[in-house]
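Risk register update: the risk of archive-format incompatibility is retired. Evidence:
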Amino acid sequence: MTAVEERQISIAQWYALAQRGTVLPMRIPLEGDSMRPLIRGSRDLVSIIPLARPLKRGDVVLFEGAPGQYVAHRVRRIRDGYVQTLGDHCWNPDPWMPYTAVIGLAVQAKRGMLTIPLDCRLMRGLGRAWMFGLPLRKHYWRLRALGGQALRRMGWMR
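Archived output:
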């Protein structure tokens, strides 16, 4: 049996290597729940590769939000050299950023024994459908919150 060497490097170090073309795909656990239900924070591993093709709506990409803070969200819109992203569990899209701000493309998520391909037409289509339903999800969560408040006021719920 062959031993597999595993190294840990930061995303910034990986990106520096990717710019030189000397890096392999990176598998990272994402923090937070902004990509739920597709990716569960701190539990699923996401494989990121350097961006080697034009972006498409529905792609899950890695970019640097604030300095030193890396975010993986779905591409919502692409226009005139700029990209707008949106987390699957977010209500508001991220601000427009230059296309060059995207540093990697998520190609798969690993959840236990299950491998979920992210870089395929089906998953991009499902992602676009999920983003299309954003207004309905917003209303659902608001109505649910109002219902919970009403039940608490009536004493039927804590």
